[in-house]
Amino acid sequence: MKLGELFGAPLQHAPPPELFQRLLRYFNLYRVVVAAFFLAAVLAYDLASTVGAISAERFTRVCAAYLLLALAILAFSGRATRFNWLLTGGVVVDTVCFTLMMSQSGGVRSGFAYMLLVALAGAGLVGQGRMTLFHAALASLAVLTEQSWRVLSGIGESLEFFQAGVMSLGFFGTAITARLLASRVVANEELARRQGEELEAQLHINQRVIRDMQDGVLVVNRQGKVRQYNPQAAALFGVSGQELVQLSQFSAVLQERFSVWCVAARECSELLRTAEGQRLLRVRFLPPGERGNALLYIEDMARVQDQAQQIKLAALGRLAANMAHEIRNPLASISHAAELLGEEHHDDMHMRLTRIIGDNTQRLDRIVNEVLELGRRDRTAPEVIRLNEFCAGLLEELSLNHPSLLQVVTLRLEPDLLIRFDRGHLHRVLSNLLTNALRYSSGTAGAIQLIAQALPGGNVEIHVIDDGAGISEALRTQIFEPFFTTRTGGTGLGLYIARELCEANGGSLELRESDSGAHFCIYARGGV
Fold it and tell me: So what's the pLDDT on residue 451?
């Protein structure tokens, strides 16, 4: 501890916490009780032989003044901004009043100096060590001054200075001890405060983690009463929006199995199906600990299977891309050989077989190109694209191979739309959607609508809508699967690659409900 701190510097500059405010009120209340006790004692009993031996009347007046001042200090105890003033003022009042009582009761031998020891110790602890040595010096000065006055007045003895000096040493010893104890109290309080803040922050993080977990979490006691659960647990069992206090409210089967698990008292996991049979859940049981609460982790197996499927498809995609590179060389040789055969004049059968070879090699070449494009989905180079200019240029380019496209497509784009997308990927996605729409639409003016609009937050939606027969309900879940096609000669990779390219650019491609025809929507990030 620094010397400056020991001699009265405050341990902290901030206003004292509520705990010390409350202790100050108790200390001031103690002062009122002591003053009232002495006043009542001197009024009710004849104590001239013990207190007030010099002048009982003056002693009574000092007690009355002491009580009034104590009540005044107590009345101001609730003001945090005057904490130090109230504390020091109270000690000054104690020192003056007890010294006057001591002088009217026979000096240091009367025992009133010991009351100053209590006041100094209390002030040091309540005030967190503030001004402790100042208070001790004030009390010592008061006692020595009173003793000097007694000696000079001829009513005291010089030998009493020794007792007054010992008492003064006691004042300083009490003050230093109170200061050291106060510093420990303040340090422990600060440590507890920091640990409390860290614990609160950690609990807040834990709550957010549990709340946002994709798996459900249930805390259940031995009787099957749910202590805590996260929103995902209620969503997995389809019981959201109600007060859940019993495990049976989540699932009767889960309640039954929980009873069996508690008897076994060991960690285990089982697959359970929800009451509607729509979800297969894996429940992991952790037996109750010392507080008697068990943990249940609920995992949606459909999500696990989807993740496995995505990993499988990614591995197959890499394998297919590698195979495509190997297929391309012999495929080019076959195509070249078919072209050479076609140049020679043979009978109709040979010509027909040559055309079959040529058509199928071209189809295989398209599949290889599609697969290679899929393998390049992760190599994106996003840039800010002005959608109006891009769509106008795309339609002109596509009209070279599809002359009727410009008359069939109706553009409805909000002005100055910007998106962040790989230009080549966007060209591939919109080309696929527009050519599909042209293939299945009626072909009349306005049969295809290309709509783009801004969303709140700056992102953009692009809609491609046709007036064709649409996609049947049975096929809606399959159209984005690789190699699924309803068209003869199609590769079945167009929509699958379009969706993958959108996701690679931070967007998405989905099929939406439509009154007539097919309605595809591209969600893309804004370019602002």
Answer: 92
